[in-house]
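ENTRY TYPE: protein
CONTENTS: sequence, structure tokens:
***
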Amino acid sequence: MTWPTTGSRLVYENPWIRVHEDAVTRPDGSDGIFGVVEVRRPAVFVVAVTDEDDVVLVTVDRHTVGPSLEVPAGGTDGEDPLDAARRELAEETGLVAQHWQQVGSMNALNGICRAPEVVFLATGLSCAAVNDEAARAEEGIGEVRRIPVPEVLDLVRSGGIDDGETVAALMFALLALGRVR
């Protein structure tokens, strides 16, 4: 079942998103208006796991919700997703990874958005040659934490990690690692 679009108008855009208002025919046949947020470039999410079985998470001060415990993530900015994932891990945590595995892809808020996302598992971690604390501060990253996998699962369970994309990225990575079935 599709929602035929009989018209569309751009109502807002910036370098990261576009917002369209579409005239649609709903699945029941009635006419309607539907707002769609389109993310201009795919995003990447990095689940970085240390040799000690800790997950590297960042605390980000989000304009929309305040402090949020998340996996490193960001836009591809026109890059190959793996290159963007490498960049985001280094920028947000000061770490690089020896091993990379794409473990999933998803769409954020698919009821209102077109926002493709790619999830990577990063292992074999070491310190990056450049550790840019100023860049982290600019993005609102207040803390980089290493948390054991069982505690990460407890944080998801208790709502301490409530970013939906982080929860989904963690699930992809833990499935790839055989930690959940």
Observations:
- The longest strand covers residues 95-107.
